[in-house]
Amino acid sequence: MSALSHMSGSVGRLRAEGRTGVGVTRPGLAWAVPATVFFLLFAIVPLALVAVLSFTSWNGVDAPRFNGLANWTSLLHDPVMTQSVRLTLVLTVAGAVVQTPVSILLGVWAAGHQRNRAVLSAIFFIPLLLSATAVSVVWRAVLDPNFGVPSQMEWLFGDGNLMGSQAGALAVLTFVGMWQWTPMHALLYQGGARAIPRVLYQAAAIDGAGKVRQFLHITLPQLRNTMITSVILMLVGGLTTFDTVLILTQGGPGTDTTNSAFYMYRRAFKSFDFGEGSAIALVLVMVATLVSLAVVRLSGYDRMRSTSEGL
Amino acid sequence: MKIRASAVALGLTSVLVTTSACSSAGSSPSSGGDSGTIHVLVYGDASNKVEKQIVETFNRTSKVKAVLDTIPGADYQAKLNTVINTPQAPDVFFNWGGGSIQPYVKSDLLLPLDDMIAADPGLKGNFLPSVFNTAVIDGKSYGIPMRGTQPVLLFHNKKVLADAGLAVPRTWDELLGAVQALKAKGITPFALGGGDQWPTLMWYEYVFDRVAGPELFQKALSGDRSAWESEDAKKALGMLEQLVDAGAFGSNFDSVKFTDGGSPALLAKGKAAFELMGSWEYATQQDGNPEFAKSQLGYSGFPGIAGGKGDPANLVGNTNNFYSVLKKSKHPEAAAAFLKLMYSEEFVKAQLAIGNLPTTTNTEQFLGTAADPDYSKYQYDLVKAAPSFQLSWDQAYPPAANTPIRTAVQQFFSGKLDVDGFVRAMQALPAS
Predict the structure, then answer these.
(1) CATH class of the domain at A83-237+287-303
(2) What residues of chain B lie within 8 A of the CB of A54, using their CB?
(3) What per-residue confidence (pLDDT) applies to B126?
C-alpha cells in the first residue's frame, strides 16, 4: 500500500517536472513513428511472415499449405542442417580468432606517426573497397590448382586441391574473409588507439616500461570496448557469410562448407522449398540472437564501463 | 545484416504472391496486361538475337502482338517460379522440358499442346522425336523445341593424343588403356571441372546409359527406387570408381571449374587429353583459345561398353530448350501461330548462323549455312541417329532434386560416399 502511494507520488512528481521544466521535456512519441514504421514494415513483418512460412509447404507457385511441424522435424533429422550450424560456428569463430590479432596489430601500427604510414594504410584499405563477389572471383583464380599460385608452389600446396577437402575449403574461406575484412577492423582499432590518452604512455615510460609492456598493459586494456564492438561485428558477419561460400565453394566439396546461410539459399531459391528455407532462416536468427546476447553479457558491454576511470 | 535482407526478400515475395493470388481469385486476370498481346519470357543471353528476330517476324502479320521479355540467365528460373502463378505471368515461356516444367504441370498451369498439334501436325512432325519427347509429360506434349540441341561429347586435344600415339577410344578398354598411357607421360587423362559438380554428373549419365541402357534411369525417374540398387547400377558405379582410382581425372579435380575456364584451359594447354562436356565446349574454346579450337580440338561420341545394354549411339545432354504455353493465356491461337515459326526456314537459318543447332527435320538442308558446318553436321547426325537422347539427370528431375544429385555425384568421386552410400542418396531423392 505504502509502496503504491510512493509510486504514484513519484509519477506525479515526474509529471509536474515535465510540465514545469524548461527545455527538458521528452520528445513526443510521434518522433519515433517513421523509424518504427520502417522497422515494423521491413524487419518485424517479414520476420513474422517467415515464421508463418516455416510451418508451411510452399514451392512459390501454389498457395502455401500448412504442414505443421514437418519442416522443423525434417530439419532436426537433416544431417546437412546440423552440420551447417556447426560449420557456421566454426567459420565464425575462426574468422574472429584469425582477424582480431591481425587487425589489432595493423590498427595500432596505423595509429602511430611512422614514415609512409598514410600511404601503406591506404593500400591496406583497398580490399574493403572491393565487393565480396569480386574478391571471391579473384581468389578463385589465384588459387587455381593448375594455373594459379599452387601450381608454382608445390612444396606448400601439394597438388593444389584446396577446394577438394573440407579443411582446405574452410581454410580458404577463412583466409579470404580475413583478407577482405581485416582492413575495416584495423580502422576501428586505429580510431580506438588514437583515443588512448598520451599521458598513460608517458607515465609508463617514466616507470621504465618498454614498447611491448606498453602495448600489453596500456594499449590492449584501453582497446577493450573497441574489441567488443569489432568482435560483435565479426560474429554477426561470420554467421551470415554467404557470398564467398557461393562463389568460392558453392557449399562444396559435397556439402562440406554448406553453412546455414548458404543452405537456406539452396533450399529456398534452388530447390524452391520456401517452407524449409524459412525454418533455416529462423534458426539463423535464433543463433545470431543468442550469440550476440552471450557476447554482450560475457563482456560486460551492457554495463558500458568506461576505460578512462581514474584519469 | 544479410540474414535480415534475405528474410525481408522472402517476406516481401510472400506478401506479393499472396496478394496477387487473392486478386486473381476475384477477377479473371488479363494475362500479360492488355488484351492484344502475348508475352514471351525467355532466358537472357546471346541467343536472344534470334528470338527478337522471330518476334518481329510474327508481329508483321499477326493481329495479336508478341512482346519479348528477357530475364538475365542466372535469375531466370527463380523469376519464372515467382511470376508463373500471378497475373504477371507470361503467355509463353522458355524452359528445359522434363523436370523444369513438371511442377507447373502438376499445378495445372500449363496448356497441353495436343489440340494445337492435332490442328497442325507439323508442330510435332517437324521436330526430331528424341528431342521433342523431352517435353512430353504423362503422354501429353507441353513444349515446342525453340533453340539448339547440346549433346555431351568427348572432346580431345589432337596433338596430345598424337604425341602419345593414341587413337580416339571407341571402347571402355581402349579408354582405360589411354588413361594408363597418358598417366605414364604425366598428362591428366580427363580434364574435369569437379568444382561445378554438373560436369562430374555427365560421366554417370553416360556410364549408366552404356552399362544399363536408358531404361534404368527412366525407371528410377518414374519412382522405382529399386533401379538404383540393381546389378547394373552397381556395375556402373564400380566402373566409375575404377576410373577415379586409376587417376583418370588427376587428384585435384574438385578444385577445378569449367565455368571459370579452368578445365577448358587444361585441355587447350595440353595438360589434359580429353574433356567430357556439352557441345558448348566448342564455343568456349573458340572464345578462350581460338587457335586451339581451330586446329587441335577434336570430338567424338562416348565409347561403348562391351557387354552393356546401352547402344553406343545413345546420347545424353540438353536435348533442347522449349517454349511452353500457360493455360490461362487469353490467346492460345496466337501462341500456336507463334510456335509454328519454330520450324520455319527463317528460324533454322538464324539459329545456325549464331552457332546453335536446331532440331527440326529441315535443319539438315541448311547445315551448309552454319557457323561451322562440319561440327553442326556431326552433331546433327548424332542426334538424328540416337536411339535415345537422355536429358541430364539434374534437369530430368524436378528442381528440388538438383542439389542432392550433384552433391552425391561429387561425394562418390571424392570417395566420401561408397557404392551403397550413393545408392541410398539417389533413393532419397524427392519423388518426381
Answers:
(1) mainly alpha
(2) none
(3) 95
Cβ separation A43–B8 shorter than 8 A: yes
- The Cα of A47 is separated from the nearest Cα of chain B by a number of Å equal to 6
Q: Would the CB atoms of A61 and B85 count as touching at under 8 Å?
A: yes
Residue-wise pLDDT tens digits, B28-47: 334 444 458 999 999 988 88
H or E element in which residue A150 lies: helix A149-152
Partner-chain contact A266 B403, CB within 8 Å:
yes
Note the maximum CA span of chain A: 83
**Nearest CA of chain A to the CA of B1: how many Å?**
7
CB contact under 8 A, A145 and B403: no
- In three-state secondary structure terms, B45 is coil
Say if CB B67 and CB B39 are below 8 A apart. yes
ipTM of the complex: 0.79
How high is the pLDDT of residue B432? 56
Q: Compute the average pLDDT of residues A201-228.
A: 92
**Best mutation target, B255, B259, B402, B413, to test chain A (most A CBs within 10 A):** B255
Provide the angle, in degrees to the nearest 10, between the axes of the packed helices B198-212 and B214-221: 110
Superfamily of domain B150-317+397-427: Periplasmic binding protein-like II (3.40.190.10)
Q: What is the pLDDT of residues B184-217, one digit of tens each?
A: 999 999 999 999 999 999 999 999 999 999 999 9
CA B165-B166-B167 angle, 5° bins:
130
Matching CATH topology for B29-149+320-388 and B150-317+397-427? yes
Please state, in angstroms and rounded to a whole number, the distance separating the CA atoms of residues B6 and A253: 25
Alpha-carbon separation of residue B89 from B21, B24, B144, B374 (angstroms)? 12, 11, 19, 41
Is residue B211 within 8 Å of residue B235, measured between CB atoms? Answer: yes
DSSP string, A53-111: HTTEE--SSSPPEE-TTHHHHHHHT-HHHHHHHHHHHHHHHHHHHHHHHHHHHHHHHHT
Place of cell 496486361: B33
DSSP label of B187: -
- Best of B4, B6, B82, B200 to disrupt the A interface (most A CBs within 10 Å) is B6
Q: Which residue of A has its CA nearest to B394?
A: A271
CATH topology of domain B29-149+320-388: D-Maltodextrin-Binding Protein; domain 2 (3.40.190)
For residue A196, give the DSSP letter.
Answer: S
- From the CA of B89, how many Å to the nearest CA of chain A? 11
Between the alpha carbon of residue B65 and those of residues A165, B39, B55, B83, B336, the distances in Å are 54, 9, 9, 21, 13
Give the chain B residue nearest A284 (alpha carbons).
B3
> B207: Cβ–Cβ under 8 A, 6 or more apart, which residues?
B236, B239, B240, B305
Q: Can you tell me the mean pLDDT for A3-21?
A: 45
Taking CB atoms and an 8 Å limit, are B8 and A240 in contact across chains? Answer: no
Q: Are A279 and A286 in contact (CB under 8 A)?
A: no
Q: Closest-CA residue in chain A for B3?
A: A240
Neighbours of A49 (CB within 10 A): 20
How many Å apart are CA B175 and CA B168, to the nearest integer?
Answer: 8
Q: Would you kindly state where each structural domain of chain B is located, as residue ranges?
A: 29-149+320-388, 150-317+397-427
Question: Which residue of B lies nearest to A255 if distances are taken between CA atoms?
Answer: B407
